[in-house]
Amino acid sequence: MRIGIVCYPTFGGSGVVATELGLALAAEGHVVHFITYDRPVRLGRDIANIFYHEVRVSDYPLFDYQPYELVLTSKLVDVVLHEQLDLLHVHYAIPHASAAWMAQQILRGKGIHIPFITTLHGTDITLVGRDPSFEPVITYAIEHSTAVTAVSESLRRETFEHFPVKRDIEVIPNFIRTERYGGQPDRSLRQRFAPNGEKLLVHVSNFRPVKRVLDVLKVFLEVHGRMPARLLLIGDGPDRQAAEALCRANGTCGDVLFLGKMTEPDAVVASCDLFVQASETESFGLAALEAMACGVPVVSTNTGGTPEVVEHGVSGLLNPVGDVQGMAGNVLAILKDQTTLQRFRTGALEGAARFDIAKVLPRYEALYEQVVEKVRTNGVHQ
Q1: Any idea what the CATH number is for the domain that residue 110 is in?
Q2: Residue range(s) defining the domain that contains residue 291
């Protein structure tokens, strides 16, 4: 099958999942065309069955804001026509789903009926989508997609709560390739980050306010006062400056390491003892799942799709949003002795195995076959 994938090419979860999906599809013999404004960060070069098409927006002085959605639409039409794609799979509702719909209408005028699947990932529904100025477009794009998926049951519910959507939405969870994780902690990394045998806590995010990075730091400050510990912060974003200011104000910057953006943080995460996540909302919790796949248990807020990933008392411990004291207590409970920590490590690895790509990929392939057959049979997009 010849598949076009549209995604954001950045470090965010939707782009990572879309890229990993494309790589897995290519490994199965499908031909995959990525269509976006930059090469996805997880996408290597010279990979069999993988092609990349850059969406370039001209710097035209008439526009204060460049019309990316229109340029993307034109690129989709071009790629479908000349690469003879069977379907489009767009990740994130706006502007990708609306661009796919416009491309579909243009192609229909040329006698080509291209189905498109929209995968909802989270902030397109929970944050951006709640802006009234976007609601009509998002609702229309969802309703007119050939098929729609959401990455968690929680996100599916939120979509129906916030949008007047009547159609079915299938839950297909995010996934990981477990074989790339689960290695033993790197002793040299461990020595580098915890030279005196400190416990290592780690957090990975885009440092946006919804991730509540300051709460992560407050949890660490509570733990730091009770046991030797260090915190590794991987990523960057709007709240980094405030996080740096907080650790400076508390004199703990020597034990809080800002590592910045990392394309593949797995080795660092695997060398840590515990992953801490304090998000206001999580549509799924991919960063937590990746930590679990490294054998690192999770202390997190119990928001959104996180409880569908992290099993409380098995692969980690969960608390209400903002419960810094409770989260710190849970960190200490897991790290109190090696036996307890090892039990949670085992639970984390077993929990992550439920989301291996070998279990999820066939569900996407079955959906692809379904929508392509629908178009072949009916000659329409729904």
Answers
A1: 3.40.50.2000
A2: 178-353
Q: Are 95 and 72 in contact, with CB atoms under 8 Å apart? A: yes
* Tens of pLDDT, residue by residue, the chain (382 residues): 999 999 988 767 788 899 999 999 999 999 999 999 998 877 877 789 999 999 988 766 655 556 889 999 999 999 999 999 999 999 988 889 999 999 999 999 999 999 999 999 887 676 554 677 788 888 999 999 999 999 999 999 999 988 999 999 999 999 999 888 866 788 899 999 999 999 999 999 999 999 999 999 999 999 999 999 999 999 999 999 999 999 999 988 899 999 999 878 999 999 999 999 999 989 999 999 999 999 999 999 999 999 999 999 999 999 999 999 999 999 999 999 999 999 999 999 999 999 999 999 999 999 999 999 988 887 654 4
CA 3 – CA 85 distance, rounded (Å): 6
**Number of domains into which the chain is organized:** 2
Verify that 321 and 346 share a domain, yes or no.
yes
| The two three-digit tokens of residue 255, written as one number | 């034990």
* Cα dihedral 71→74→76→79 (10° resolution): -120
Does 147 share its domain with 265?
Answer: no
Are 134 and 38 in a shared domain? Answer: yes
Closest C-alpha to 148, from 134, 129, 168: 168
Please tell me whether residues 88 and 162 are part of one structural domain.
yes
Q: Model pTM? A: 0.88
CA of 128: how far to CAs of 143, 147, 162, 292, 340, in Å? 18, 21, 11, 29, 40
271 plus 301 within the same structural domain: yes
